[in-house]
Design a protein that fits this description.
286 residues, mainly alpha, 17 helices, 77% helix, elongated
């Protein structure tokens, strides 16, 4: 391999992949001897130091990058990454500086996460909403924010974000699927329409089959729902929630024997899932 800084950096990356950190450190040191301003090598040094538990050394390297390249985001983003688990407030400040230097969805999301972890939820909400006003076509950040609302069962704000994504990407299967799921929770009959559209876009996706199949079962079309869920189970046999939906569908379609076997198999496994108690109750009735 040629004795150049980029070649040594490539060699270091190979050593990292082989989990030979000592050799990686030596290659990075050699790269920086040849080219002291090679930022990528310094970033790799900082990450190796952090991985080895030398956080102070990693931060020292990172702040050296910031001094060397104070107009780049990378040094500040790396500082945020290093601090994110132990000092979310300090990480937020670092991400904020990185975002000032370079606007990106990734940095906005990291900033929002750090602000939220530092118990500054109002500021986190303001920053991400201001960002989306400035970047209305940023589907990555919208999807992230919609997912936050969905996890908190804040359905109306989630719908708002998903609808904004669909206005730009009307055939986005995951967004259609998530909207279908939310509408089903709200007992909105539009759930079936969105689930059908999602399935048309991604007919082989088991999560989408599960959503559509469960909606069909809940809306009285058990036989078609069971067909979809059976296929989803064959693709993801360990997905407990899908198997539960399948068992309910079998029961409602009149196949009590098969429903009982599915529930017994499901409950024999200690894997937790939200409907475990409902599954026990259903098994008791069969």
């Amino acid at each position: 391999m040629p004795d150049s800084a980029p070649a040594q950096l490539q060699l270091a990356q190979l050593y990292v992949a082989m989990q030979d950190n000592k050799a990686a450190e030596a290659a990075l040191k050699k790269a920086l001897t040849i080219q002291p301003d090679l930022v990528e090598a310094k970033i790799a040094q900082a990450r190796l130091a952090a991985q080895a538990g030398h956080e102070d050394q990693a931060l020292k390297i990172t702040r050296g990058i910031q001094q060397q390249q104070n107009k780049l985001a990378v040094g500040f983003e790396l500082e945020g990454d290093l601090l994110s688990q132990k000092d979310a407030a300090a990480a937020a400040k670092a991400y904020d500086k990185a975002l000032t230097n370079q606007e990106s969805s990734q940095l906005m999301i990291k900033l929002h996460e750090a602000l939220t972890r530092s118990k500054n939820e109002k500021q986190a909400e303001k920053r991400i909403n201001d960002w989306l006003k400035k970047h209305p076509t940023d589907a990555i950040t919208r999807t992230y924010l919609a997912g936050i609302h969905l996890a908190k069962k804040q359905y109306d704000p989630a719908i708002k974000q998903y609808q904004a994504i669909l206005a730009q990407h009307p055939e986005h299967a995951a967004t259609l699927n998530n909207l279908a799921w939310i509408y089903q929770q709200q007992k909105n009959p539009a759930a079936l329409e969105f689930a059908e559209k999602a399935h048309q876009q991604a007919p082989g996706a088991p999560a989408i089959m599960d959503t559509l199949g469960w909606i069909l079962i809940e809306q009285g079309q058990a036989q078609r729902g069971v067909t979809l869920l059976e296929k989803a189970v064959s693709i993801l046999p360990e997905a407990a929630e899908i198997r539960y939906h399948y068992a309910v569908g079998l029961s409602r379609a009149g196949d009590q024997s098969k429903a009982r076997k599915e529930l017994e198999h499901l409950l024999a496994n200690e894997q937790p899932f939200p409907q475990r108690e409902e599954a026990r109750k259903l098994l008791d009735t069969l």
